[in-house]
TrEMBL record, chain A:
The lineage of its organism: Eukaryota, Fungi, Dikarya, Ascomycota, Pezizomycotina. It comes from Salinomyces thailandicus. The chain crosses the membrane at residues 548-570. Residues 1-19 form the signal peptide. One of its GO terms (biological process) is attachment of GPI anchor to protein. This is GPI transamidase component GPI16. Pfam families: Gpi16. InterPro entries: PIG-T. Keywords: Membrane, Signal, Transmembrane, Transmembrane helix. The keyword Transmembrane applies. One of its GO terms (cellular component) is GPI-anchor transamidase complex. It comes from the Eukaryota.
From TrEMBL, chain B:
GO terms for cellular component: GPI-anchor transamidase complex. It is found in: Endoplasmic reticulum membrane. It is a multi-pass membrane protein. This is GPI transamidase subunit PIG-U. Keywords: Endoplasmic reticulum, GPI-anchor biosynthesis, Membrane, Transmembrane, Transmembrane helix. PANTHER family: GPI TRANSAMIDASE COMPONENT PIG-U, PHOSPHATIDYLINOSITOL GLYCAN ANCHOR BIOSYNTHESIS CLASS U PROTEIN.
Length: 623, 441
């Protein structure tokens, strides 16, 4: 027992020793706070850790999570992107998506990775991918193991590696989605366990499951990528963990001891007096205007529990918290030990304040009082996209995506990726791009199409398009689909709810990519992404209570056909008169006669004896 | 009016064919949305014959993709030439009707090598047989719905017609084409072969009959066996022609396509039933509800069941090979995995080839009840399909029940046909039994 600490000591020292030798071991964290219109607050958490490639190969980890690294090493995964998301980003009132949509996933779980493997040996690749999804499934308590062949696709256009991959080491991209996955606390806990401070200090101490999963929109991302210098040497591995969410400030600030929403007393409700029916006893509540007041403690349930500064104190002071506010909004710093923030004036009357975090025993909190002026939304989005399934009754179902470029000057080139489950069969010959606005002109068109048809119960279908959308253009992309009828065991328990179909993934190509001259790695602008909400697909259902009845009824009809045909084919016709009478007395007589005949034919001797006996009996009776 | 009467009297075929073609084309012109509406109906288009899927396969093929590398297209490769138009379908219908006309005129239905029906004078006019095909509403709807099963039907009729003309090679080739377009006509190989053999032997038999006193026609006469081709030899040649034709068609398809993928996609689909889209047949709901452990067993049972009829019909209806062919067509139309009303319409029309026995079926059997049940299901089938899939006020059992009644009515019609053909044959041996009640032993 006493020896254990002695063994443990070298083990704990080792990483420290190697970290000293590891120039790439680093850890940073960052929280971005941005009040949005309609009383919402955007909070974006980002945690980045790096390790050198040599340390990774030798399995020495300091900030990089060991559990994840071992999975990546075992499955030969070069780059990994994992997303858990729910809710909807309201881009019409909130503006553009955070981080250009690059750290966002479709509703449910989404995973894509570059796995080492050759085109010639798909079974090796499949085995590694299967190992990856199964291990991640265990690590994150998610149903990722359901990403099988029917949910895995190989997109061509929509994803590009974010890291630098060595040449000659051809990694293959595999992509899978689980739109039905319900993201919850059991996925957040393993996510926090990967962090060096494990949610106990630093900004991650704000991440409480009750608040995170009460958000209007939330996405959790893990991105692992290799980073090398221009010569392809001196490589490092970077893991970025991101949590982005939009909280309803009003709802988040409900006290935890009384979380049930109750109607306010009538005196506290602000009435819309402009309504004609407004009177003393009738009140039409006024839509909330302005910005509600909030503080970190009220919104997240607790203040930030000191910093998670793992480096020595001599490092340059960092400012892990950024707050975007309109210039005239006052901000109050609630913690005594912390230094005041660094203000940065932006144009359009907004301010960005950077705050440092106090050391561990101290807490950090900021408070914004209510303000009559609502905050401005973020930058306008590059593209609006919605997708829906039309066609009911006798019309065939059609999957329609409406894409609209709100900009007046910027033309967009985008890729569109749809991965459909095998039971939703697209008719690609009906694919159309319909131009809805005059601004589209003739230049709105499909430029490339990559299509993999579905195979029943083996593979889903993939449609990938490259299209051009001029400024101000609204276009509708549509294709006919057919819904399959499944075997009864293939329906989920709640079959009449319908099936989830993953949203379309839209990648907006940056301008620089179109310009050939600027197309080198260092200057390349990252593409931005957009995902349409998922679809709920109702499929025709059989009667689940009927298997025995159906087997019996259909078999009866088959047997009836077989029986009546073979009855005719096998037997011969006879006139009724020629048919031997078959009534009950006749049959009995026949039976008796047959019996007698058999008795009498039981060998010659016994026959004679029987006859004699009968004669003898007769005489006895007579006598 | 007089001219029409005169034309009808002089050229009934011309009038019938032109009016049937005009009816189809006028329907399309008057209701341009009608073909697309009918194409979407599950009663007409099955996953292995749908026109929409043909368009999809053609689209992929024209863009250099393998159309069989997916779960949508399961139709035979030669159709991939170009998209057939409604005019082609109309022409196919007219040609099929003309072939039916020839089959009826050949007299194969009521007179064979060793048998002449006592009711042979009751057979319908060949033009009436063609009219029963062309003006059958089920055929008409199928023509407008444009499924590729129309091609298979055409080749089957062509094969029977060639068999009636005692041309074994063309008959086997046409049957190979039909089996190549959709798998199930291969079940017609024994009866059509038998018919062809019977017609090949017929001239020799007739010569022998004429050589006698002239009254032996239809009775057993001593025929010099050496003057006739051997049954085994003929069968082998017929089978070999069929196999070589199929092999030739496969090689031809392989030249058109990048891989052999089309063989499992076209011919394994009706065997394993991966696509369970509703249709008027018996298979789809059975295999939706089937327990996974028993699925393969019951697929085997269903296919063995269909296989089990071909040879018994040939043996029992040896003297009436065309009746064996028609009965086997009935089995296919009722029990095939991707059933559709096109095949049923074709079978119902081809029963009129056996029109000399109608008297027996109508007086001794349940034909009225069966036809009434058919009408009832034709009305209620689409309604219940609508209630299940669109209105949501009925469940799958509604449509399933109607398919059961439909199959039951067709089975009754089939047994009626078998009964009347066998009774007719029996009465030629026992003329005193005509009109009397019989029993089966």
């Amino acid at each position: 027992m006493k020896l254990q600490p002695l063994f443990a000591l070298p083990a704990t020292l080792l990483p420290v020793v190697f970290a000293a030798a590891d120039p790439h071991a680093a850890y940073t964290e960052h929280l971005d706070l941005h009040p949005l219109p309609d009383g919402h607050l955007y909070a974006g958490f980002n945690f980045t850790a790096t390790t050198s490639h040599a340390a990774y190969e030798a399995q020495h980890f300091r900030y990089f999570p060991r559990s994840l690294a071992q999975i990546l090493q075992h499955t030969r995964t070069a780059e990994l992107h994992l997303r858990f998301a729910f809710g909807r980003w309201d881009d019409e009132s909130w503006g553009a998506r955070p981080r250009g949509g690059r750290r966002e996933g479709g509703t449910g779980a989404e995973l894509w990775a570059w796995v080492d493997g050759e085109e010639d040996h798909p079974e090796v690749l499949e085995e590694r991918w299967g190992g990856l999804v199964n291990s991640l499934s265990g690590l994150f308590c998610a149903s990722l193991n359901f990403i099988d062949g029917t949910r895995t696709t190989r997109p061509v256009l929509s994803f590009e590696p974010e890291g630098t991959h060595k040449h000659g080491n051809e990694a293959q991209l595999l992509h899978g989605t689980l739109p039905h996955e319900v993201v919850c606390t059991e996925n957040l806990t393993p996510f926090l366990k990967l962090l060096p401070c494990q949610g106990k200090a630093g900004i991650s101490s704000l991440l409480d499951g009750h608040k995170v999963f009460d958000a209007n929109w939330q996405t959790m991302a893990i991105d692992v990528r290799p980073l090398c210098n221009a010569k392809g040497e001196d490589c490092a591995l970077e893991i970025q963990q991101t949590v982005d969410m939009v909280l309803d400030v009003e709802r988040s600030m409900r006290p935890s001891h009384d979380p049930i929403p109750r109607p306010l007393p009538i005196e506290q409700i602000e009435c819309d007096t402009s309504k004609e029916y407004h009177s003393d006893d009738t009140c039409y509540p006024q839509a909330p205007s302005g910005a509600p007041g909030w503080s970190l403690r009220k919104v997240f349930g607790q203040p930030i529990n000191g910093n998670c500064d793992l480096e020595s104190a001599d490092a340059t002071p960092n400012y892990p918290i950024t707050l975007h506010v309109p210039a005239d909004h006052p901000v109050e710093l609630l913690s005594s030990a912390s230094l005041p923030g660094k203000e940065e004036k932006m144009n359009l009357g907004s301010t960005i304040i950077h705050y440092p975090l106090p050391p561990h025993p101290h807490t950090f909190d900021i408070s914004l009082p209510p303000h009559p002026q609502p905050p401005e939304p973020r930058n306008p989005p590059l593209l609006h996209a919605t997708r829906h399934l039309t066609g009911h009754g006798l019309d065939p179902p059609i999957l329609t995506t409406t894409l609209s470029n709100p900009s007046l000057s910027k033309n967009l080139t985008l890729t569109y990726l749809d991965t459909l489950p095998w039971f939703l069969r697209p008719y690609i010959h009906t694919l159309r791009l319909q131009r809805l606005s005059r601004a589209c002109g003739d230049s709105a068109e499909l430029q490339q199409l990559f299509y993999t048809p579905a195979r029943d119960r083996e593979r889903g279908s993939k449609i990938e398009l490259l299209l051009h959308l001029p400024a101000g253009c609204t276009a509708q992309l549509s294709y006919g689909v057919e819904k399959a009828v499944l075997r009864y065991a293939e329906y989920p328990p709640d079959a009449n709810r319908g099936f989830d179909v993953a949203g379309g993934i839209i990648k907006i190509l940056p301008d620089s990519l179109l310009d050939e001259q600027v197309n080198n790695d260092s200057k390349r602008e990252a593409a931005s992404y957009l995902r349409t909400p998922p679809l709920l697909l109702p499929l025709p259902t059989p009667d689940f209570s009927m298997p025995y009845n159906v087997i019996i009824l259909t078999s009866t009809v088959l047997a009836l056909g077989f029986g009546s045909v073979f009855n005719l084919v096998v037997r011969r016709f006879v006139l009724v008169e020629e048919v031997p009478a078959a009534g009950l007395p006749t049959r009995l007589r026949d039976a008796v006669r047959a019996l007698k005949l058999r008795l009498s034919s039981l060998g010659g001797r016994s026959g004679v004896e029987g006859k004699a006996g009968r004669v003898a009996g007769g005489t006895t009776v007579a006598g | 009016m007089n001219t029409i009467t005169k034309v009808y009297a002089d050229h009934p075929k011309t009038l019938l064919f032109s009016s049937a073609a005009a009816l189809r084309i006028l329907l399309v012109l008057a209701f341009p949305a009608l073909p697309d509406l009918l194409t979407g109906r599950v009663e007409i288009s099955s996953p292995v014959s749908s026109f929409t899927r043909l368009q999809e396969g053609l689209f992929l093929y024209q863009r250099g993709l393998d159309p069989y590398d997916g779960g949508i297209f399961h139709q035979s490769p030669t159709i991939l030439g170009r998209l057939p138009t409604i005019l082609l379908y109309t022409a196919l219908d007219i040609l099929s009707a003309s072939n039916l006309c020839h089959i009826a005129a050949s007299g194969a239905a009521y007179a064979s090598r060793s048998y002449t029906s006592p009711r042979h004078h009751r057979h319908w006019n060949p033009v009436s047989v063609a009219a029963a095909y062309l003006l059958n509403p089920l055929t008409l709807l199928t023509c407008l719905g444009r499924p590729t099963s129309v091609f298979a039907i055409f080749f089957v009729i062509l094969s029977v017609r060639e068999a009636c003309r005692a041309r074994s090679v063309t008959s086997a080739f046409a049957l190979a084409l039909a089996s190549y377009v959709s798998l199930h006509p291969v079940l017609l190989l024994p009866p059509v072969g038998l018919l062809c053999y019977d017609r090949v032997c017929l001239p020799a038999t007739e010569a022998a009959g004429r050589g006698g006193d002239g009254e032996t026609k239809g009775k057993k006469v001593a025929i010099d066996q050496r003057s006739q081709p051997s049954g085994l030899g003929f069968g082998l040649i017929y089978l070999a022609t069929f196999v070589f034709s199929v092999a030739f068609l496969f090689v031809l398809s392989r030249l058109l396509l990048p891989s052999w993928n089309f063989i499992p996609s076209v011919y394994l689909t009706p065997l394993t039933l991966p696509d369970l889209t509703p249709n008027p047949g018996l298979w789809w709901y059975f295999f939706i509800e089937m327990f996974d452990a028993f699925r393969n067993f019951f697929l085997g049972v269903f296919w063995l069941h269909m296989l089990s009829y071909s040879v018994p019909f040939c043996l029992r209806l040896q003297k009436q090979p065309l009746a064996a062919v028609v009965c086997m067509m009935g089995i296919i139309a009722i029990f095939e995995p991707y059933a559709n009303i096109g095949e049923v319409g074709f079978w119902l029309s081809s029963i009129t080839l056996l029109s000399h026995t109608f008297e027996l079926a109508s007086t001794h059997r349940y034909t009225f009840a069966a036809l009434a049940a058919l009408l009832y299901t034709v009305m209620l089938g689409p309604v219940f399909h609508h209630l299940w899939l669109y209105a949501g006020s009925g469940n799958a059992n509604f449509f399933y029940a109607i398919t059961l009644v439909w199959a039951l009515a067709l089975i009754i019609l089939l047994t009626d046909t078998v009964y009347s053909v066998l009774r007719d044959e029996w009465e030629s041996e026992r003329p005193e039994g005509k009109g009397k009640e019989v029993r089966q032993l």
